[in-house]
Amino acid sequence: MWFPFWISRSCIAFLALLTWSLVLKLDASPAVDLNTVQTMVAAGKIAELKALGRDVLPVMARLYETAALAERTRIAQSFYALGWKSAEAKRVLIKDVHTPNQQLRLEVQWALGRVSNDDEVVTVLLNNMQNDANPLFRDKAACALASDQIHLTEQQKVRLFAGLIQALGDSKPVRRIAMLALQIQTGQTKGFNPDGPVAERDAKIREWKQWLEEYKSNL
């Protein structure tokens, strides 16, 4: 049967619109329910959170902003366990990177590098490692620098290594934890002894700086 040309074009346009609408419906992710996420976080159900996909991250960030200390601690633990980059997670976590609450501070320090490779994360952790009045926070900031900067590119690691090498010339407790972080990151010590004589330490720091220049030149 023959149809007028204008009717055929209209039908084609309608069918195309209908098909596109169905595709959008199939591709659309269901909204992540805030109460469901809150329950999963409280129960430590990381696999279930992961199954919701990355759309769960901004929901967790919204929960974090209004939560009490204990719940913020659990959310930070969940961010750490997921290990997904999230600008929203970094934004809310960084606000508590100097909190005096011990457990929350530790969880935040550990989680930051697992949600972001923003330069601010390494900077603030280096500052905590060197300058915090609490030796526990200094030590655990070094642990975060050593093991939890999982999204850094090789170029970004230069800033991390430079900060740790600079800290080798700091006070005795900081020298030791900076050396441990460098050793974990690079597999090397270059014979640096944090308790050795000043001249010996300075010579080893020069070796580290030379190594860093060679590292940069090979990138």
If you had to describe this structure to a student in words, what would you say it looks like?
The protein is mostly helical and 219 residues long. Helix content is 73%, strand content 0%. It has twelve helices and no strands. The protein has helices at 5-27, 34-43, 46-51, 56-66, 69-82, 87-93, 102-115, 119-131, 135-147, 154-167, 172-186, 198-217. Helix 4 packs antiparallel against helix 5, helix 8 packs parallel to helix 10 and helix 9 runs parallel beside helix 11. The longest helix has 23 residues, at 5-27. The termini are far apart.
Write a concise synopsis of the structure shown.
The protein is mainly alpha-helical.
Q: Please, how many helices?
A: 12
Q: What string gives the helices and strands in order?
A: HHHHHHHHHHHH
Structural class: mainly alpha
List how many beta strands DSSP finds: 0
Instruction: Describe the largest sheet.
Output: none
Low-confidence runs (pLDDT<50, min 5 residues)?
1-29
Report the mean per-residue pLDDT as an integer. Answer: 89
| N→C terminal distance | 69 Å
Measured by DSSP, the beta-strand proportion falls in under 5%
**Fraction of residues in H or I helices:** over 70%
From the spread of the alpha carbons, the general shape counts as: elongated
Rg on CA atoms, Å: 25 Å
